[in-house]
């Protein structure tokens, strides 16, 4: 693939006005947009796997990885989704506000439902330019013999596209943050934003800091999995305590048996809950689960007055939990919070 340069096709003449308006409101919303696009891409590939047009490798796990790099002033969003070929990058990315989901549904309308295929390419992606001077895309389509694609733009109407070097199906988006937005390549700030907007996304989300020192944890040898990287085998001797018998003599009693443990590279932990309580049937939920979920989500130590678990299939599909908090004083008010 030869290096190609072109101009973005803007379907909405006011699109950059909208983006600039976002800059002055929810400045961190781009994180939600990037991760949502990744979830949509993974959902599409799952659909193709279900209808037999794609097969996942054995033991494959879908995920979204966010990597912050304070030294390079970058933020990466990597998904294991459907990926794109050159023609799709031209269509979905260079034509701003084009709905890639609508095209996907039309193509597979007889084989898959559209209830989970909601993503809009283009507009959400361009929210990245609220915080970045330049954005690079490296993607590889699921299609047989597809070639990897590298796309980049500095936020103007021009872009460059050429053959890339990605070897795995999916997409990697790299944001080169501008000087006013370096807070977003801070690991703790990124964690805060992901939990704010993406706590219940349907795909596991992992956060990493580039070049961070390796972290370790110790587990029982019996709990080892095939994915664990063992650093050291540890034998813990049995522990004994000296106790006095009824006749006044003393004896050593084992209080902790000998154990075989392993020091392993710390297992990654997803920042989100992919199976929140509202996805369960109300009959399968206990009062304690409802209370624990309420405290976890809303950080309110008081019990709610009551709650309503919505689980509707007709005339539309709706699942959720409405909590009604207690108000202790006549004029006390609590700001409503929605978690998606």
Topology:
Elements: E1 4-7, E2 9-10, H1 15-23, H2 29-50, E3 64-69, E4 74-79, H3 86-93, E5 95-96, H4 100-107, E6 132-140, E7 149-153, E8 158-163, E9 170-177, H5 187-198, E10 205-209, E11 216-220, E12 230-236, E13 239-244, E14 250-256, E15 259-265, H6 287-298, E16 306-312, E17 318-324
Helix pairs in contact: 2-5
Q: Which tags fit this structure?
A:
21% helix, globular, three-stranded antiparallel β-sheet, Heat Shock Protein 90, single chain, Ribosomal Protein S5, domain 2, 3 domains
CATH topology of the largest domain: Heat Shock Protein 90
Radius of gyration: 25 Å
Measured as a percent range, the helix fraction is: 10-25%
Oligomer: single chain
**Low-confidence segments:** 97-101, 112-122
Question: How many domain modules?
Answer: 3
Give the termini separation. 41 Å
CATH class of the largest domain: Alpha Beta
Proportion of residues in β-strands: 25-35%
User: Roughly what is the average pLDDT, rounded to an integer?
Assistant: 84
Number of helical elements:
6
Apparent shape: globular
Structural class of the helices, strands and pairings?
A: alpha+beta
What sequence of helices (H) and strands (E) makes up the elements?
EEHHEEHEHEEEEHEEEEEEHEE
The largest β sheet comes out as: 8 strands, mixed
CATH homologous superfamily heading of the largest domain: Histidine kinase-like ATPase, C-terminal domain
Q: What is the annotated CATH architecture of the largest domain?
A: 2-Layer Sandwich
Strand order of the largest sheet: 1-8-7-6-9-4-3-10
Kindly state the number of beta strands.
17
């Amino acid at each position: 693939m030869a290096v190609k340069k072109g101009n973005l096709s803007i379907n909405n003449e006011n699109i950059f006005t909208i983006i600039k308006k976002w800059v002055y409101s929810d400045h961190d919303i781009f994180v939600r947009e990037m991760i949502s696009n990744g979830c949509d891409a993974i959902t599409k590939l799952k659909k193709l796997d279900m209808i037999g047009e794609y097969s996942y490798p054995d033991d494959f796990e879908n995920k979204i990885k966010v990597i912050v790099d304070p030294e390079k002033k970058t933020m990466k969003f990597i998904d294991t989704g459907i990926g794109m070929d050159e023609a799709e990058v031209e269509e979905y990315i260079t034509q701003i506000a084009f709905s890639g989901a609508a095209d996907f549904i039309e193509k597979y309308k007889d084989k898959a439902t559209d209830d989970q295929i909601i993503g809009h390419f283009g507009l959400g992606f361009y929210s990245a330019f609220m915080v970045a001077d330049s954005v690079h895309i490296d993607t590889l389509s699921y299609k047989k013999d597809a070639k990897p694609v590298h796309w980049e733009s500095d936020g103007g109407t021009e872009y460059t596209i050429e053959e890339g070097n990605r070897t795995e199906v999916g997409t990697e988006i790299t944001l080169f943050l501008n000087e006013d937005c370096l807070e977003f390549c801070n690991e703790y700030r990124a964690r805060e934003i992901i939990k704010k907007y993406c706590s219940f996304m349907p795909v596991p989300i992992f956060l990493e800091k580039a070049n961070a020192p390796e972290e370790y944890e110790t587990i029982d040898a019996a709990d080892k999995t095939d994915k664990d990287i063992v650093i050291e085998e540890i034998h813990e001797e049995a522990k004994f305590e000296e106790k006095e018998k009824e006749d006044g003599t003393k004896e050593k009693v084992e209080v902790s048996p000998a154990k075989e443990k392993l020091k392993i590279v710390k297992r990654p932990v997803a920042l989100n809950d992919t199976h929140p309580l509202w996805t369960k049937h109300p009959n399968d939920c206990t009062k304690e689960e409802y209370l624990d979920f309420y405290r976890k989500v809303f950080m309110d130590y008081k019990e709610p007055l009551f709650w309503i678990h919505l689980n509707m299939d007709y005339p539309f599909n709706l699942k959720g939990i409405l909590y009604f908090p207690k108000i202790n004083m006549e004029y006390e008010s609590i700001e409503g919070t929605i978690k998606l």
